[in-house]
Amino acid sequence: MANSITKVPFHGTPEQEKALLEVIERLKAERGCLMPILQEAQEIYGYLPEEVQRIIAKGLNIPFEEVYGVATFYSQFTLNPKGKHRISVCLGTACYVKGSGLVYERIQKELGIKGGECTPDMQFSLDACRCVGACGLAPVIMIDEEVYGRMTPDQVPGILAKYKED
Amino acid sequence: MYRAHVLICGGTGCTSSGSQKIQDTLAAELKANGLEEEVAIVRTGCFGLCENGPVMIVYPEGSFYSRVTPEDVKEIVSEHLLKGRIVQRLLYKDSVDAESNTIKSLDNTPFYKKQKRVALRNCGIINPEIIDEYIAYDGYQALGKVLTEMTPDDVINTLKASGLRGRGGAGFPTGVKWSFAAVQPGPEKYVCCNADEGDPGAFMDRSVLEGDPHVVIEAMIIAGYAIGAHQGYIYVRAEYPIAVKRLKIAIGQAKEYGLLGKDILGSGFDFDLDIRLGAGAFVCGEETALMTSIEGKRGEPRPRPPFPAIKGLFGKPTILNNVETYANIPQIILKGPEWFASMGTEKSKGTKVFALGGKVKNTGLVEIPMGTTLREIVEEIGGGIPNGKKFKAAQTGGPSGGCIPAEHFDIPIDYDNLISIGSMMGSGGLIVMDEDNCMVDIAKFFLEFTVDESCGKCTPCRIGTKRMYEILDKITKGQGTLEDLDKLEELAKYIKANSLCGLGQTAPNPVLSTLRYFRDEYIAHVVDKRCPAGVCKNLLSFTIDPDKCKGCTACARKCPVSAISGTVKQPHVIDQSKCIKCGTCIDTCKFGAISKK
User: Fold this and answer.
1) Which domain covers residue B246, as residue numbers?
2) Residue B121 placed within a domain
3) What pLDDT does A133 receive?
């Protein structure tokens, strides 16, 4: 899920590209350099979108598929950026029977993204999680460190608006 | 010269419990009292007693302070370091002799008494970021001896004679492995170190890397000399940032001292070392997968033979050993194979480090001679089970191992004994379980882990483990049948026999061993639809005792699914068809009227 292709437009800066090309230049003579390069690329960009993978493929003169294959194999690498605000929706049993699935759907609709993705403006990323241990407040969502309990789908736009402002 | 040394644990456990803050506070307090020229602070690796962290030892007295808070530090400085009065209330209880009220040597406390530290000998003693401290404790002497007095054959024969076996889990004799690679034609060969410790609940290798990184570097150079390799790689998890940082510092210092690079110690032997970071794939702990990953590819295993000693990294002869295995080697060279072989059992020599966890009082890192019994580890070193509960089983070997029941409590722990009772040594996780743990649930937990981590290359592992998980899931939900148990066993045998690598070949072990020793628990789930340990939620039922219920309505208001009904001041009832077993009602009831069974 986390490695589905991102909807976020690529906003790489010339400085980032320059830094990446330097990394490639520094490491490319070493054998097995693809992983160290991907690791440093993820530090530069925060994630590994297709555009970055293509720069690496070109720099190392290897097929894009090879880069993509490695980037999707390891859980450390993410093809999706994380948003400024991270939303988790509890899909544990108690929350689910109280309708957290509907809340989850509504958030996806409001933000126009699926679980595991990030909004194009990088404000929000969305994930489902297991029980957060607040069954008495079900259904529960978390935005960053803040817990919102007894959620209804209709409350979603109001809560999201609070975060959009800043 | 300092008149006192304060050793503060900088291992992962104590760092999580706040030892960096303790160190900063101490430094500030020392300065405020003008003691910075008199008292030295040493940040060490893991002491082992993580349960009581953050821990601190003040020498020369050897006062072992545990669970220290920043507020306590002020008192330690003003009382102990300034006035020489030991702060009794902060001392680790087991280190005080009750009769004479004096401090015992740590070696005489129940936690340390039965331990024998070989791989961990410098952890908690030296500052891992200073090479001179390692050298002061005989560091790099073994390398000097190897390069000036021994031939590569001598080194290999010494290891063979010591009986050292791989500490990563499989237990292959290290000297034999090296001899396979040594006879291969050169010049391109490799020495690798597996520091991709991935078992849930295991942190032995991490502690060695964080507490004594030079010992691994020294042993790898020796390995290079023995097999004729000039390049080494340490494959370490990116999730171990402290270990990575200290390794980098250590490699830099070793290069500066001429212990890595060209013409080491004037012997004409060249050896270089690089770090490769893992990226979160459990399967990369398997040797062929690890090498594929160092090559920068997807970390998938490949069939053996050819074994890596013949055809390994970049298709060249390679040896791969685990961190703990390397940590033993310099001592074996210095003290001789006879010394090492004098410890342990007939076929398993030396010591083994275990990460002791779960339902035991002293959780932490312990190193014991092979052949120590499970009872000694759990009851004496571990201090027994907390809260007066009964020992049920110990899990060793992580997702590849099995559960050892109470009937084998007195079995001496070594490679072969563990395999004979359906578990394995593994890398050294040892999780203690009491009567509140459900064995079906534990088996399911490990299977879920393997399903997640299976790389997907071979069918038995990719699909087989998933099917086993689904059957276990069914059983924990009360939908299992007796045929399912047979099906589980059949699948388990098939997966073991046909999987490509160690991950799949051992994945069914948690299920097989629990079926072997705790079949009655499986039967209770399947036939009686009951979870004896009270863990599997779908099999529990929550009931209200009408005699105790006061009708306060608190539970009914808290119930997330409105399954509780009743009138005020009258006993309430739970509608079992609506109840989702979340337990909120039990937590809410002030009268203890609600029970689960």
Assistant:
1) 131-340
2) no
3) 64
